[in-house]
Amino acid sequence: MSKVIHFRTQTLNSSQTLNSSHKNACANISECSVEDATKKINNEKMKNEKKSYIDLLGKVNSNVEVPNAIITIYDNYDSQLILIQKLYKGDSFYEEKYFNQALKNKLDCYKQQDIKKKYDDYNNFITLENIIEKLVTSSMLCFYCNVKTLILFKNSRESCQWTLDRINNYDEHSNSNTIICCLKCNLQRRRKNSAKFKFSKQLEHNLITLKKLE
């Protein structure tokens, strides 16, 4: 005799279907809410980091004691490029101490940033000699937008002042991980890919052009 097995089929009623849809909708809303909240937190964090960086540079620059007469004379790109080249070659000049002071103050600023973020390899930190060499080899031009940067300036928050930008934002300010760029680009880039940001800035400043393929 064959064994007969009976199956009970279960049909979902409209209320069960609605409950299921409601749960899925709530889950989607929760996921979106978490994602939106995360984005908002990250945006706020970047805004705070940006403000802290500007404030820190403002404080560092205001601590550079350079006579107004010196700043007035050398508050231009061409004069400063000549003097940084002299500094690189080891030539002595009257304004040398002011240039060194300005560079060292900003170097200390970056060092304090890395210590605060608890990076491991302090021995890999960029040196003053590295910075001078970078300024000379780059001709003091911003890596991203090619603007002429400044070492000495009147406004402590000068947008064209030189800065060190890290190629990888998750590593320290080492010689291999940094490039010379203006303050404006440094703040605009945030955590965008360095190469992609450079491409967009060069397009913006007409440094490169795209040709349509026929």
What report would you give on this structure?
With 214 residues, this protein is mostly helical. It has a domain at 58-204: Herpes Virus-1. The protein has helices at residues 14-62, 68-74, 77-89, 96-116, 128-137, 183-189, 194-204; strands at residues 162-166, 178-182. A two-stranded antiparallel sheet has the order 1-2. Helix 1 packs antiparallel against helix 4 and helix 3 (77-89) packs across helix 5 (128-137). The longest helix has 49 residues, at 14-62. The N and C termini lie far apart (79 Å). Mean pLDDT is 81; it is low at 1-12.
Describe the secondary-structure layout.
Elements: H1 14-62, H2 68-74, H3 77-89, H4 96-116, H5 128-137, E1 162-166, E2 178-182, H6 183-189, H7 194-204
Helix pairs in contact: 1-4, 3-5
Strand content: under 5%
Question: What is the β-strand count?
Answer: 2
Please state the average pLDDT score. 81
CATH class of the domain at 58-204: Alpha Beta
| Rg computed from alpha carbons, rounded to a whole number of angstroms | 28 Å
Give a concise summary.
The chain is mainly alpha-helical and 214 residues long. The protein has helices at 14-62, 68-74, 77-89, 96-116, 128-137, 183-189, 194-204, and strands spanning 162-166, 178-182. The chain contains seven helices and two strands; from the N terminus they run αααααββαα.
List key phrases describing it:
214 residues, 55% helix, mainly alpha, disordered N terminus, 2 strands, two-stranded antiparallel sheet, Herpes Virus-1
